[in-house]
Design goal:
This protein is mainly β. It is built from three helices and 20 strands. It has an eight-stranded antiparallel β-sheet, covered by helices on one side. Strands 4, 5, 12, 13, 17, 18 and 19 form a seven-stranded antiparallel β-sheet that branches. It starts with a helix and ends with a helix.
Length: 282
């Protein structure tokens, strides 16, 4: 196996900014899946974490879903209604099938979502890195999930299984943990309590010398509420099933696109808005 081909490095203006691991060697309990880590600013500051002690199943940047027709593609325990977080032998895995396109600044990948030896979903993942300024670049991440089973399936979350506020699952970014919790804000809200579970065109997470600005880049993607954690750990995601299960009929495809500005320095609202508009092309 060619390791270099297996772990492409994304570059912006010749500088490496992200490493993509397609075939991680991980225990089943972590729901093995491809991920981006480390992701860095243009100056080299890391803005992701891999298997941190607080949540070993958090794998940098990628797609993770805690409930696909009862199978766990998030990792860790499964939230069971009227029982709570429970260790179950229900973990699935995302398997890299191949690249349709490979460039220094991005790729198109085909994946299979497998559980109990069966393929539930086929995914096409498109990832691209683009320079914005001399201190900021954008990660453009699109995933398309197609139901390839023999019938309908649905995507859920701990929230849809009885845990209010825990609607995580979909695109997820585990940020670096620092001594102080990062600031989180949108155009008109600030703080985890005010931002979590809301819909906003963009959301910023700002730490020590770095800022991430995430935005849904399609009308449908912008309808997904943001899942936000800053106090317990720094993580942001766009929720596919925030309060109700997402049905995926046989042969249908769920498509989401999230663009993330990765910037050196601590951006204010005006700076974040300008960069995210440039990144999304609005």
């Amino acid at each position: 196996m060619n390791t270099q081909q297996d772990t492409p490095v994304l570059r912006v203006a010749g500088r490496p900014v992200a490493r993509y691991v397609t075939r991680p060697e991980l225990p089943d309990r972590l729901s093995p899946r491809p991920y981006l880590h480390p992701v860095t600013t243009l100056s080299g500051t890391a803005v992701t974490e891999l298997s941190p002690a607080d949540h070993t199943h958090h794998l940098g940047v990628g797609v993770a879903v805690p409930d696909v027709e009862g199978h766990n593609f998030w990792g860790g325990r499964t939230y069971v209604r009227d029982q709570g977080p429970t260790e179950l032998d229900n973990h699935g895995a995302q398997r890299h099938s191949g690249f349709q396109l490979r460039d220094p600044d991005g790729f198109v990948e085909e994946l299979r979502w497998v559980a109990l030896g069966a393929v539930l979903l086929r995914e096409r993942r498109t990832v691209a890195a683009t320079e914005l300024t001399d201190t900021a670049w954008a990660l453009d991440f699109t995933f398309s999930l197609t139901n390839v089973t023999s019938g309908p399936l649905s995507i859920g979350s701990p929230a849809t299984n009885g845990r209010p506020g825990a609607g995580y699952g979909g695109f997820f970014w585990r940020a670096r943990k620092e001594a102080a919790a990062p600031r989180v804000f949108t155009a008109d809200r600030e703080g985890e309590g005010a931002v979590h579970g809301t819909r906003a065109d963009w959301l910023a997470l700002a730490g020590t010398g770095w800022t991430l600005v995430l935005a849904g880049a399609t009308d449908r993607s912008r309808q997904d509420p943001w899942f936000v954690r800053t106090a317990e750990y720094p993580g942001v995601g766009a929720s596919l099933a925030a309060d109700r299960r997402l049905p995926v009929p046989l042969g249908d495809t769920v498509v989401r696109r999230v663009v993330t500005v990765v910037a050196d320095g601590t951006l204010d609202r005006a700076e974040a808005a300008v960069l995210v508009r440039k990144a999304v092309g609005q």
